[in-house]
Amino acid sequence: MKELENRRQFIGKLVLITGGLLLTNQFTRAYSLKEQRYKVAVIDLMLLKRQKLGALELSKEVGADGVELDMGGLGNRDTFDNKLADPVIRQQFIDKAKALNLEICSLAMTGFYAQSLATRPTYQQMIGDCITTMKAMNVKVAFLPLGVQGDLVKNPELRPAIVERLKVIGKMAKKAGVVIGIETALDAQNELQLLKDIGSTGVKSYFNFSNAIKNGRDLHSELRTLGKKNIVQIHCTNDDGVWLQNDPKIDMKAVRKTLDDMGWKGWLVVERSRDATQPGNVKVNFSANTAYVKSVFQSDV
Fold first, then answer.
1. Which of 110, 132, 183, 225 is within CB 3.0–4.6 Å of 145 for a Cys-Cys bond?
2. pLDDT at position 26
3. Which domain holds residue 120?
């Protein structure tokens, strides 16, 4: 009986110790994610789950640390078709993200890909609705593409109007304690000048690797020209049709070295880079890209 009791006590101690180790490991993983220099996210829109709760579960399944949520369609509306404006739906997203240990890294105003920031009369309402949602969800960054109609390379005459509007947006963002990250068609030097003309820490560059590569510019030089303080987040993508690990046009290890040397840290958001033989296989494509980006940016070099 004494031997049996000794065994029970030993097993009890082992369970306590193992449980403690498991809890410690869980805490370490959560802490590691919080302190990770480079975090990797995906986009609900590209997961084909725009503003759908299932985007969070799928983001976790493909191995992402976070997700960029879209603000919804724009079209000819005064503002976005934003389901997250509903406090009940918004709380569902917040709770689900917390349960999955997943961060909402940014909100995206992709409606401006096809709409004009320079001419839309209710742009302040649109930006204001985005900022309101950001504050309610404790999200610090929003993505604002200038898009086709706001292409300052093809339409340089729009520059004065866009600068003035981005000055207003910068003031709105700074007052709210958030940052609006813009994506332009400009090279780094001209984008840097645009940011200087806007003159607000509330507006920064949301850099996209593909913009530099597809326009024949040196990616590393572009990153260094903009500098770490001016890049709020990065869309980590290039050609759609090939996984990032199989893309000969981008050396991701060299990109990491450049970002390391710059002292930049933050979110790398995988946008496209789908395999041409299976473009509709969302889970496979984003799992492959997320795993590869993590293997480069979340490991010792």
1. 183
2. 40
3. 38-297
